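Input for the complex:
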Amino acid sequence: MRALIALVCLAGVARADNWPGWRGPTGDGISRETNLPLKWSARENVRWKAPLTGAGVSAPVVWGQRVFLTASDGRLNDRVSLACYHADTGKLLWRSRFFGSALSDGQFPPGGMAVPTPTTDGKHVWALFGTGDLVCVDYDGRPVWIRSLAQEYGPFRNRWGMAASPILVGDLLVIQVDHFGASYLLGVDAATGKNRWKTDRDATVGWSSPLPVKVGGRTQLVVAGTYTLRGYDLETGKELWKSNGMHMQPIPTPVEQDGRLYCLCGQDLHALCFSADGKQQWRIRANGCYIPSPIVLGKHLYYAEDNGFAVCLDTATGKRVWRGRLAGKQHASPVASDGKLYFIGEGGVVTVAKVGGDDFEELARNDVGETVVASPAIANGRLFIRGANHLICIGSR
Amino acid sequence: MHRLALLGLFSFTVLGFAADAPRRTPQKARHGSPPQVRLADEVDELLRDLRAMSKEAGGSDRARAAWEKLVRQGPAVLPRLLAAMDIPDTVAANWLRTAFERVVEQARDRKEALDPVPFLAFAGDRQRQGRARRLALDLAEELKPGCRERLLADALEDPEFRYDAIDLALGHLAKKDMTAELAKGAYRKLFDASRDQEQGRRIAAELKKLGVEVSLAEHMGFLRKWHLIGPFDANGAKGFRTVYPPEKGVDLKATLEGKGGKKLTWKSITAPESGGGRFQVLVDLRPTLGESDDAVAYAFTTIDVRQGGEVEFRGAADDNFTVWVNGERVFGFEEYRNGVRLDRHRFKVRLKPGRNTILVKVVQGASSEPNWEFLLRICDATGKGIAFEQ
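Predicted:
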């Protein structure tokens, strides 16, 4: 109980520094942190490394002194877990394990059934697994509520496994289930686990996550899916608009800035810009923009091509500003803070590039020494990177 | 404290795994005393609360209260939590599992010794749910290292531990010095028991080194011999729903009109048995029928089985996959860009004694990934191929 009170107090002051879910505090891969590490090596600036077992490419989420991470294990990856580490030391504080309800049609081997990133509000953690299990636990790892969407609505039927992360918007947890079965968008009361609404979707498999966007005082959910981008009312789940142009099975999560939506993985691999009510503003060929989600900052849209290039587009026109070489294939979505962009290659080499400017400017390259597929987190002056074998905390603070 | 815990554990051991039938009258323990009977009643009630979950997390508040009380019971409650976990409902099983693990963690933190016997007994009971048995075995092994290996030594036909048992036996065989004849017998036994493709390949490779050739395709029940015809026009993604001539009746001598007016005839193939590819048998349509988008192909075969009865068909296709057996449609799946996965689709089929016909339809989408292929095998419920002649 004492711990809970302490955490509640902490929650009140630390929000801006946390990384509470997929793509960070504002859902766009950007943190307001400053003085982030630029260079590191095995001997310099690595604060701790915690060994990991099992599979998983979900991103770490950080709140205060706690780092949460999901994983799956077992020969079939049919056992799933949510672990909590101390952000200062990397010490494993607890791990809650669950049986998986149902395996997906296929799975991405490094990710197993732990691809969606969990989310937290400083008191509870919500995790969704590719097995169709959705859980809420408190900060001591005790279950608050447990659901099996696989039992309620059928197993997740996905050729590479479920990837869409649960998104917490106020007291509502939003789940996008686009798969070979009947697809749906779900609004769940985060406290009780009960549905507030469930909206059927005309979509097949996808791996993108919903993006909450405020338009005219109301929040809408922007959702990329089969051939379309759609807006939904947060309160009711009702579809507000839809616009064509997306890939059949999109992966990146859209981003928003100043009432404009930016999407990658458009049909025939295009980058697209829409107004907040779904009217297309521009569409431009963007080869290789298949997996990582983009970053929009000021007048530039940044993204990583899967094959190892960083690209900067002009947000007004879509015109390419620059294209620069990164270190190896890119699965992870880049993150940005403190005037820096962090692109992590599959081989574990992080390219730090400068935000802004008319040319690609590489500031540093750092090797974490192991394969990285998961997207990183930025919190409390540190970078948290999930490697294939370790959860790694970078930063001297 | 330690003795008390063990005593408590003993009483629950003799009570047995009563919690899997929560509504029956509490049994008296062999050394039953009124307090123990009362405790059993209370635990039954708490377990009922954890198992009474409804959809949309209904019953969570009650479950959480019961969870806390059960955790406070300490290690004595572990066997009953385990027994209650022996249910198909994953939500309830997860409430029980988290309570089980919390009690174990607390005992671990207190360095409290637990008796491995009830957990090992549960793990060895093949009538129980596999996932709960595996959890029990993990704990038993932690408490008494080596007991896992002893259980697996006799688990080649165990529905939950078959893979583990074979894996362990393979490790032992690799280190064992034995005659070639004995080794052949030992590997053959493992091959017969295997149900996993990669494990089967591993054993087949060992047998090959000993001069014994085995067919994993046959062991898994893959269908390799097919008559193929296509491409038929499926422009506008109409292929899945459109009825083409082979669906009205197969005449292997017929010439049919295909996409672009092309004259099509049935062509016979035998799909190779691949030792290193992703699948032991994959029927690639492109070498025989050519590359084609927005197109439909059919594959036809007959099998002879000695006895009829229910069997399991396991298959997949890229893209759409439809199957008819003896003229009756038994499966259909319409999705594009979905990829072939081993055993992705499973469906029960009743075969008749003697000859049975099998027709497969595979639709290739527009601008799809360059794959046009399928696989199909026929097996029993454990995944072992049935005997048939093709």
